[in-house]
């Protein structure tokens, strides 16, 4: 399945549905963490109009979800 083209805000909303919360924001980068599961890596998401393919793949890998899971969250 192809990666969707999404913005930073879309990524924040989708990961919020998984339980991630915004820890802080510095400039245009939003730092998210999972409060109840400390084994999950914190995520740094740029608040840009389009997130690059490589970065989106890394975010999915770090959040331990698949492309199908991302489509279901959007």
Notable features of this structure?
74 residues; alpha+beta; Metal Transport, Frataxin, Chain A; three-stranded antiparallel sheet
What is the number of helical segments per DSSP (H or I, 4+ residues)?
Answer: 3
Number of strands: 3
Structural class: alpha+beta
Q: What are the secondary-structure elements, in order, as H or E?
A: HEEEHH
In CATH's first tier, which class applies? Alpha Beta
Across the major sheet, the strand order is 1-2-3
* Name of the CATH architecture: 2-Layer Sandwich
Helical content band: 25-40%
CATH topology: Metal Transport, Frataxin, Chain A
The outline comes out as globular
CATH superfamily: Hypothetical protein
Our Rg estimate from Cα atoms comes to: 11 Å
Distance between the termini: 15 Å
Strand content: 15-25%
Explained architecture:
The chain has helices spanning 8-17, 53-63, 67-73, and strands at residues 21-26, 29-33, 43-46. The protein is globular and about 30 Å long. 38% of the residues lie in helices and 20% in strands. The protein has a three-stranded antiparallel beta sheet with strand order 1-2-3. The protein contains three helices and three strands. It is α+β, with helices and mostly antiparallel strands and 74 residues long.
């Amino acid at each position: 399945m192809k990666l969707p083209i999404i913005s930073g805000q879309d990524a924040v909303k989708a990961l919020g549905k998984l339980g991630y919360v915004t820890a802080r924001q510095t400039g245009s980068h939003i730092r998210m963490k999972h409060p109840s599961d400390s084994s999950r890596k914190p995520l740094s998401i740029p608040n840009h109009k389009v997130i690059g393919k490589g970065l989106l793949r890394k975010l999915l890998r770090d959040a331990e979800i698949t492309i199908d899971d991302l489509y279901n969250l959007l």
